[in-house]
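Please review this one:
***
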Amino acid sequence: MLRPHPSFLHALLENHATLTALQAKEDSAEVRRQLDDVTYTLCVSTGTRTLEAGLASARAQLAGVASQEESGLAA
């Protein structure tokens, strides 16, 4: 399975967090659409079917990258 670049995953997680916070303040159709788009992209990018699984997978992949960098294994 192809894996998305860590910076892409990081951007998706940031966008999701930002849009979730914005939705809590202003639940507009545009914010919901953007949140749906980010959720869809996150799920497709991580090969998952639910938001929860997509978030967990993205975080795990980013944690793995950080672990590799800390141990000097990342090229």
Residues 6-19+29-68 form one domain.
